[in-house]
Each structure stands twice: as structure tokens, then as C-alpha cells.
Amino acid sequence: MAAAAASLITRLGGLAILLLSLLALCAPAQAQAGDIAAVDRAAITNVIERQMAAFAKDDAATAFSFASPAIQHQFGSPDTFMQMVESGYRAVYRPRSVSFREARRAADRVIQEVDVIGPDGNGVRAFYIMERESDGSWRIDGVSLAPGSEKET
């Protein structure tokens, strides 16, 4: 199971980077944080914070509820999802600190940048791909991590 999860994480990481690149290319050149309503920015921040709070409590069902339908379908169960996050996304699973940066539109999604200091003290930048659902709520449709320059001692 661990080998399968690691393989899936590797594929997902590559897919997330590819998706981020494609979304950036598709986004209008003038798209900036200013075109995202304050209420949407607040809702997106809230979803990410609530998922991180669920991770901190090892509450797989609640954490899974913030994932988009496609992510839920891909992983099938809260426990499988939580295993993937715990093994491949330690920085967002157990962050020491979190700082929200800009959010920008990319095609029909919003990319929320979040600087995170992971449990090892190393910084990463998390790119959350946010999807608006038909009911108007926001869900997380993927996360890609890039090395950050911050370190905590």
C-alpha cells in the first residue's frame, strides 16, 4: 500500500505542476488578486485553514470533506486520502506556521499561494488549486509544493 501511495503521490505531484503551468498559461495576462472578491478570498482561506485544523486532529473525514469531488473520487476514502497527505505533504499536514499570500485566477480556478514552515523547520510554498462548486462553496482540487526560502530554527 505504501509503494502504491508513493507512486500516486509522484504522479499527482507531476500532474499538479503540469496543471499549474497550464492554468497559468490560460490565465489572462491582466489577472491579479484584485479580480477575486474579498468574500471569495476569505472563503478560500477558511477552507484551507479548516482542512489544516482537521489534519492537526487527525480527523480524516473532515479533512476529506474539503477536497473537491474529483479528489474524493480519486482517493475513494478519507483514510486513503489522509495516508497520502501524511506521507507526501508533511508540511501542510503538520505545519509550524502558515502565511497566506496572493490568490489569483487561472482559467476557471483560483490558485491560492500559502507559505508554510513544515514540521522539519523547512519552508515550502503550497499552491492550492481551488474549485468553486455548483452551490457556491470552495473546495481544494489539488496542492503542489515548491521549496521555499524560509527556514525556522
CATH-scheme architecture: Roll
What overall form do the CA principal axes indicate? globular
Question: Given the helix and strand composition, which structural class is it?
Answer: alpha+beta
Portion in strands: 25-35%
Mean pLDDT: 84
Tally of separate helices: 6
- The count of strands amounts to 4
For this entry, what is the oligomeric state of its chains? single chain
Can you summarize the main beta sheet? 4 strands, antiparallel
Q: Strands across the major sheet, in which order?
A: 1-2-3-4
Low-confidence stretches: 18-33
Work out the helicity level.
Answer: 40-55%
What is the CATH class designation? Alpha Beta
- Measured distance between first and last alpha carbons: 34 Å
What is the gyration radius calculated from CA atoms? 15 Å
Describe the fold and architecture.
A 4-stranded antiparallel β-sheet has the order 1-2-3-4. By secondary structure, it is α+β, with helices and mostly antiparallel strands. Helix 1 packs across helix 5. It has one domain: Nuclear Transport Factor 2, Chain: A. Strand 2 and strand 3 form a beta hairpin. It starts with a helix and ends with a strand. It is 47% helix and 29% strand.
